[in-house]
Prior knowledge:
Layout: E1 18-19, E2 32-33, H1 38-54, H2 57-65, E3 79-82, E4 96-99, E5 107-108, E6 112-116, E7 122-126, H3 132-136, E8 141-145, H4 149-161, E9 188-191, H5 195-213, H6 215-218, H7 224-232, E10 241-245, E11 261-269, E12 272-278, E13 285-293, E14 303-308, E15 313-318, E16 322-323
Antiparallel strand pairs: 1-2, 3-4, 3-9, 4-5, 6-7, 6-8, 10-13, 11-12, 11-14, 12-13, 14-15, 15-16
Amino acid sequence: MKCLYCKEEIIKDNSSEEHVFPKAFGCPDNWVLDCVCRNCNVELGATIDRQLAGNSIEGIWRLQKIGSRSKKPIRQNRIRINIPDEDRFGEFRGVILFADFLQTDSLYLPPQILICDIFGKKKSILIEDMSDEEIKNIKGKYDLFAYNSKEYKKAVQRLKKLGKKIDETKNNHLSITAIKEDGKLEVEVRGGIDLIICRAIAKIAFNYFAKVHGAGQALDSKFDTIRNFVRTGVMPKSKIVNIEKGHILADETDRQYSLEGHIFTIENKGNYIISKIALTNMFGFYYIVKIGDLGPIWRDIKKGHAYSLKSGKIIELFSPTFLILNSKLKRIRV
């Protein structure tokens, strides 16, 4: 047995179980691969998998739906969460928030300065991202925010040393008018999809290919491009991961969908094997991953599976864009 990613021989001391998609997103323990060595499993899990789980738009979604398994804080620079720039949020309008992965569906306020220029436009900057020189050169009105009194006082001391005046007695609490009747705070979330996230998605697609078509086929040299992309991030001339608007499952729209969960498919497009991946089926986009060449002999490679959050189970797809049919040939809803 050779490793799916480094192609080194897997021995007893270096064997492991690789989840087809990250366990943080709910992958069952019976949906695993035995063809990834422990070194690759640990390295890729600690880097690209972890970033997908905590530093992506899908990561925020899974925090609300599933919760955090690792309980590890992650600095979020691929997603941006802001309190909207609306009057009801008062002086907090526009501030930056982080997802708190120690709690489900929770946010916290990192230490930051909110600057208002002469035109009334506001810009929030994290204290830890600002050099001493940048703080000295702040112009216009500004406010200081932090998630607790200890961090607030620490930021005040730094600003005072650099010659900036700040109100040390300011009430640093959000106005009650900003909170909805159900106790929720409405925020804006914007996500960035960069090389790390693309590598994590490509890894899921390649794992799925190995799961449904076998490790032996996935080890073929024609798949070295995606293999190296996942391992090293080396970008080939032709993009491996692309984003498509819409939904994978047939007849679904942004307002009507059959499944809340994740979708994985394999099919051919021309001479290429492609995988379609949706970690958030309710979103209006999914990923198309170019696995590699189909080869000279045509064969039916179509496969599809979905993970249902409701049941916590893997469901086989039909076609593979329909949920599997029952004996009466009617699509079941999950």
